[in-house]
Amino acid sequence: MRYEPDRCRLHQLYKETGISQRDLHILTGLSESQLSDYAHNRKIMGLGIAYTISRALRLPNIDPIYTWRRVD
Q: Which of 1, 52, 56, 65 lies 20 to 30 angstroms, CA to CA, from 8?
């Protein structure tokens, strides 16, 4: 059984954590345009970036960053 990212949840996570895109840019060093590309599903982030973002948002792991879909 294999899974892949479906939809990025950054917009929801900004609301849930109270951290803005600008704040996340400052915390991670990722550009605001790059964060926007992820949030609008124009790009899928790699594992290292997902981990960096999860740490900055104080998430327990990378799972909440995306909804996940099973690929059969």
A: 1
| Sign, Cα dihedral of 71, 37, 26, 57 | negative
**Helix, strand or coil for residue 57?**
coil
Q: Which domains does the chain have, with CATH numbers?
A: 2-61 (1.10.260.40)
Enclosing H/E stretch for 39: helix 32-39
Judge if pTM exceeds 0.85. yes
Reference 65, options 3, 14, 31, 21; nearest CA is 14
pLDDT in tens, 18-69: 999 999 999 999 999 999 999 999 999 999 999 999 999 999 999 999 999 9
Name the DSSP class of 40: T
Are the C-beta atoms of 10 and 38 separated by less than 8 Å? yes
